[in-house]
């Protein structure tokens, strides 16, 4: 294999740049030429391709986002768009492609790998949601959890410090994660939230309200962490205020969770995945995803990358008294 390309697609995630760095440096070690593709699959269709070398990716590991930029492409969803993407790769004599992204991006990689057997395709899971089946963790998840945990630390400080005699202090913090509660679970545990509410579990709203009443009766303050994917997340705080008869101070962390400097955990994870991706292409593998299994970096079939429910069993056994669902 003489030439490969790398792109980032879909939602950005902290650590994507470290994966790009690893792909370029490992390819250089193996004597493989690397091309970067701007703006994901849409950039590929538009022939936005340029040479990458070790000098161009020096110092990018510490940066959030992606230097290649990212986008979503409706055109790539069409047969004509995918055909054009293959033609562009072949026009540059690209033999292998590394796709860094979440579920949609990896599904695109799976489809692309079936278009032309001469072009090998390897995916790297990068999503703060950590919802990709086949891998224990995805790039960006640890950084997002770190952002939420630090926010909880700050909120807990004021929640514990200021007390009134006639009103409980209740804080509700919303996390990202789509339909999965991984960020809420791990950040909630690490940040000592009083109650964590995720979409995977099911409880009645009345039970949630009663649990909050028990908490504020015991200590006059309550910090709640809830996932954006729970039922009626947009009106959750309003509903709580109506039922509790207390003001609920709301915090929406939003896109802070997707930006910022990646943690060392995400950087090392991304570097390991990037190296393995190039090694897999060099070995002639295709239609596979780089996966973390325990302490090992392995390859999994892209067929297995559908949205995963995740397994909270280990954490629930330790902290099940803090976790509910809606």
From TrEMBL:
First-tier enzyme category under EC: transferase
Catalytic activity from the UniProt record: beta-D-fructose 6-phosphate + ATP = beta-D-fructose 1,6-bisphosphate + ADP + H(+)
Compartments reported by the entry: Cytoplasm
Names of required cofactors: Mg(2+)
GO molecular function: 6-phosphofructokinase activity; AMP binding; ATP binding; fructose-6-phosphate binding; identical protein binding; metal ion binding; monosaccharide binding
EC id: 2.7.1.11
Stored InterPro entries: ATP_PFK (IPR022953), ATP_PFK_prok-type (IPR012003), Phosphofructokinase_dom (IPR000023), PKF_sf (IPR035966)
Principal place of residence: cytoplasm
Pathway: Carbohydrate degradation; glycolysis; D-glyceraldehyde 3-phosphate and glycerone phosphate from D-glucose: step 3/4
ATP-binding in keyword set: yes
UniProt keyword terms in alphabetical order: ATP-binding, Cytoplasm, Glycolysis, Kinase, Magnesium, Metal-binding, Nucleotide-binding, Transferase
Alphabetized SUPFAM superfamilies for the sequence: Phosphofructokinase
Domain Phosphofructokinase, first and last residues per copy: 3-280
GO biological process entries: canonical glycolysis; fructose 1,6-bisphosphate metabolic process; fructose 6-phosphate metabolic process
Record flagged with keyword Ion transport: no
Any Gene Ontology CC annotation: 6-phosphofructokinase complex
Signal peptide extent: none
Functional summary from the UniProt entry: Catalyzes the phosphorylation of D-fructose 6-phosphate to fructose 1,6-bisphosphate by ATP, the first committing step of glycolysis.
Similarity comment: Belongs to the phosphofructokinase type A (PFKA) family.
Name used for this protein in its record: 6-phosphofructokinase
